Structures are given as structure tokens and as C-alpha cells.
Amino acid sequence: MTLVADLPKQAALPRPNFERWRSRLGGLLPLLLPVTVIATWQTASSLGLIGSRLMPAPLDVVYAFWDKASSGQLAIDVLASAQRAISGLLVGGSIGFALGLANGMSKFSYALTDTTLQMLRTIPNLALIPLVILWFGIGEEAKLFLTALGVFFPIYLNTLHGVRNVDPQLIEMGRVYGMSGWTLFRKVIFPGALPSIFVGLRFSLGIMWLTLIVAESMAASAGIGHMANQAREFMLTDVVVLALVIYALLGKLADVLAKTLESLTLQWHPTFQKPVKA
Amino acid sequence: MSEIINPVRKTNAWGKEIEPEFAARPVRERHEARGVGIRLTGVAKAFGDVSVLRGIDLDVPAGQFLAIVGKSGCGKSTLLRLLVGLDEVTGGSIAFLDESGAETRPNARIVFQEPRLLPWDSVGGNVAVGLGEGGRAERVARVTAALNEVQLTEKAKEWPARLSGGQRQRVALARALVSRPDFLALDEPLGALDALTRITMQSLVERVWREQRFTALFVTHDVAEAVALADRVIVLDEGRIVLDVTVDHERPRERGTADLAELEGRLLKAIFA
Ligand SMILES: Nc1ncnc2c1ncn2[C@@H]1O[C@H](COP(=O)(O)OP(=O)(O)OP(=O)(O)O)[C@@H](O)[C@H]1O
Ligand SMILES: [Mg+2]
């Protein structure tokens, strides 16, 4: 898996026929497949073709959701998970960002730390669980450590990549026009690295949820993972599936937020510009 | 939308926008020089063992328009980079002189072959880069004035990616001019433009120079361009000046006259000698 992705390419030319067809369907096309699957699944469950022990009917999941939501337990669990995710992202992300900037701009810092970091990167962070439990026990610190570590690498690598790939001609231009230090960073280096930093952010969000799911199944008194684990003990498949759905929704939400932030800050980038009407 | 703002937008046979005719606007000619004088004594530059400039002696009077021509790799860009302080000489010295002949620090600017605009800043913001840090209210007025000079006022809020190549280079010129430099270095500024855009850009460069009379060093690989614009043309070869000629024809010059063509021939001969 490469964690450094290419920057978004120029938007492809619109294909007129496809566009017209799609606008007629009003953008409903992407929903067609999931709706069909869920309808079939519900029908099969109602007809008794799928045992509810193994797979709950979609409606059962909805009831479970209602149940958890009205008791207030769901809000507590979602909040606990979101809090872990955000603190992991903040800690790991800001360290990765800072080191990425430092190593992108200073040869000394790069020579000192990059090789070590690249070596550490090859260890899958979940493989550290036994060690992490020995160090931190099974409490919040362990979860924070694992999430932060998972988030760290994509942000570090992409920030470094972004800073190193800022057009040297622009940096030279900045210097001729009297920029240095903070001004040069704020006007040239940071905006130039930003598209790549966003690629790192979106990669790291995926890793953040993945790490959290595993970390929460270790032990927790609240959180989506806790909810799923408890339900497994009582064979409540509907709640287990509900937990999966909520993980998926949270993941999607985080990605949408990152995407929105990206298109707001990168308006200058050709990929994010509205096409000019001819 | 641009049709409304600019109703007489012209396009050529390929539908490409033709740059407006700058020469159409009257020139507010300025006769007294405002620029700095430049004196190079035995300037040499080597990269490691490779000697690129080998003893350049050159006196550029304040306000002169000097064109530098020469084969690719003969050290033209290197010379400009030394003059704007992007590199250090390895021998000799460079001095900038005010009217009284005393040494002074120039307000030097450079225009590169590529516009080098910040893609994440608006056209106006890019021009403001030329002002450095400073008061806000005055900035807006000066940026607008500089954009007006290159006739791009209506594009101030546009992203650079939305401009044509010629328009981008005009923004780069406005960025260089906004701080009223007394020395402007131009490193093949029109080299990447198509032939038609080049002709109008040449008139633009000539016009702003006639209005501001900064000292201009214009590097070009186009001998006809050098002869049409400059007061004086030097030919560089293997790090030395091999020809230095004065062009004292009336401005604006008519292209393709017999004596200019003769001069072009002499320059070409010196370049390929
Ligand atoms: N930073 C550098 N390190 C080593 N050699 C360099 C460096 N910059 C330029 N040179 C060498 O100096 C010589 C002159 O380069 P320069 O860019 O001044 O040429 P030029 O006259 O501007 O050519 P062109 O017309 O192609 O732009 C070339 O041989 C080039 O390889
Ligand atoms: Mg050059």
C-alpha cells in the first residue's frame, strides 16, 4: 500500500450523454444498488430464509437503533468513540504534521529522523497491541496511543511529500521578492503543500476508524466497540450490525467533512473550480 | 460573463483570444532617467570548476534599455541572477550608482521566462507580492494602478489558472512594476509566448519602460526583438562580451527596415562566430 497518492488530476471532460441521463435520474443512481440489496435482504429474512441468529433483518437493526437511541445509551457510546477518534487524530496528526514540515524544510531534521520513522512505519500499528497493553494497560491511554500512531504516518508522509514538492521556482520567486521565514512559509510553502496534506488527512481518517474499532474491542466502558462486544456476549446480532452501520456512517461523515474542508481551501486548484461556461 | 465586461474580445482563427493592442494607448513619455546605473568590473562566476562568466566589464547608464543576446548556455541567466542578488559573484564586482555616481542599493526586480505566479492567490494578491509587507490601504491602490498599467484591472479577483499565458506574463510584469523598481531584469520574458502575443507584449514592455525609465536588462534569444526594443545590444559568448552595439533609432521603431535588418545580421554573425 502506498500512502502517498498522486494529487487530483484535472477533471475529465464531461461526457454529454451520460450527464444528461444522470441528471434525469436526479442523482439517485448511486442509491439503487444498496436499496435493492436491503429490500432483498428484508424479504429473505421475513420469509425465514436467513436465520436471525446469524444475520438480523434490516428492520430489526432499525428497532435496535431506536431502542438504543431512546435510552440515551447510543449517544453516550457514539460520543465516547468520537472523542477517542478526535483526540487520536489531533495528537497523531499534529505530531505528523509538525515533523513533516520540519523534515521537508530542514535537511538536518530530515537526516536525523526520517530513516528511523521509515523503519517504524513498516510495523503495522495493530501488531503493537500486546506491547501497548504492557505499557499502558487496557485503558484510554492505550487506545489513544494506537490511534495516534496509526494517524501519524499518512499525515507525516504526505506533509513531507507536499513540502518537498513545492515548485522550487516559486520559492525562488518568493526569495527575490523579499520573502523569508514565516512569510515564505505562509505564502508559498504551506499553500503549496496543502493538497498533499489533505490526501494524508483522508488516508489517516480511514486508519483512525480501523484502529479505533480494534482498540475498542480490547476493553472499554463505553463506545461503539464496547456496544458491539457486549451485544456479542448476549448474541444480539441486531446490535452488532447496528454498531457496524454506525462505524460506517461515522467514517463517511469524517470523509465528507474532510472533503468539504478540502474544496473550501483549495478553490484555486483546477480540480475544485467550477467549469467555466463556454 | 467576460463578454459583458469586455465586449470587443477578439479571437484568432483557432478561437484563441488575441491580446488587446497596448500601443493604442498614448505613451506618457518620460525623458529624464529614473533608474540606477550599473557598473560591472571583471565579473566572473564559476560553478565548481566550470567557469560560466569570465570577466565581464560593463557600464550601463541609468535608464538604459540594454538587451543581452547569445547562444543557449552562454551565461545570460547567470548574469541576471548575479545582478538581482540570487547568486554571488566568484570574481570581480558589481556596483549600482545613483545620479551623483555614488554607490547605492537598487530596488531590483526580475521577470522570469515563466510567470511564476502563486496559483493559490488571486491576480491582485500576486501583484501585491511585489510590494512586500506594508500598509493595506495604499496597497490596494498601487496594485490596481499596476494592473491598470498592464490592462488587467478587471481580472484582479481571478485565479491565475484562469488566465491565458500572455495574461499571466502581464501579471508577472505588474508584480515587478508595482514597487516602482529602478532596475528591472527580464530573463526571456516573452520566450514562451506565441508570435502574435509577443508583438503586443513587446509594445507593452517598451511603453512601461518609456513611462518609467528604469534601467532595463532584457535577455532574449530573438535578435529582432533585441533590436526593436533596446538602446544597446550586447552579445555574450562563452562568458565574455564579444559585441556591444548602440541602437539609436526613433521609438516606436518600425520593424524590418533595412538598417535594422543589417544590424540583426551583424548580431547573428557575432553570436555564431
Ligand atoms: N546552479 C548551477 N550549477 C552548475 N552549473 C550551472 C548552474 N546554473 C547554470 N549553470 C551552467 O552555467 C551555464 C550558463 O547557464 P545560463 O542559465 O546562464 O545560460 P543561458 O545563457 O541563460 O542559456 P539559455 O538561453 O538556454 O537560458 C550553463 O552551462 C549551465 O549548465
Ligand atoms: Mg537562461
UniProtKB/TrEMBL annotation, chain A:
Family matches, as InterPro entries? MetI-like, MetI-like_sf
The Gene Ontology biological process terms listed for this entry are: alkanesulfonate transmembrane transport
Q: Which PROSITE patterns match?
A: ABC_TM1
State which residue ranges cross the membrane. Answer: 25-44, 85-102, 122-138, 144-163, 235-254
Q: Which Pfam families does this chain map to?
A: BPD_transp_1
Task: Name all ABC transmembrane type-1 domain ranges.
Answer: 78-258
| Location within or outside the cell | Cell membrane
Show the coiled coil region(s).
Answer: none
A GO cellular component entry from the record: plasma membrane
How would you describe this protein's topology in the membrane?
Multi-pass membrane protein
Name the domain of life this protein comes from.
Bacteria
Which UniProt keyword terms apply here? Cell membrane, Membrane, Transmembrane, Transmembrane helix, Transport
UniProt main location, coarse: membrane
Q: Which PANTHER family match?
A: ALIPHATIC SULFONATES TRANSPORT PERMEASE PROTEIN SSUC-RELATED, ALKANE SULFONATE ABC TRANSPORTER-RELATED, MEMBRANE SUBUNIT
- Family designation: Belongs to the binding-protein-dependent transport system permease family.
Q: What's its job? A: Probably part of an ABC transporter complex. Probably responsible for the translocation of the substrate across the membrane.
Q: What is this protein called?
A: ABC transporter permease subunit
Q: Which organism is it from?
A: Devosia nanyangense
From TrEMBL, chain B:
Q: Name one GO molecular function term.
A: ATP binding
Which InterPro entries does this chain map to? AAA+_ATPase, ABC_transporter-like_ATP-bd, ABC_transporter-like_CS, ABC_transporter_ATP-bind, P-loop_NTPase
What SMART domains does the entry give?
Answer: AAA (SM00382)
- Give residue ranges for domain ABC transporter: 38-263
The organism's superkingdom is given as: Bacteria
Keyword Nucleotidyltransferase assigned to the entry: answer is no
Where does the sequence pass through the membrane? none
Which Pfam families does this UniProt record tie to the protein? ABC_tran
What are the entry keywords?
Answer: ATP-binding, Cell membrane, Membrane, Nucleotide-binding, Translocase, Transport
| Similarity annotation | Belongs to the ABC transporter superfamily.
Q: Would you tell me the protein name for this molecule? A: ATP-binding cassette domain-containing protein
Q: Which organism is it from?
A: Devosia nanyangense
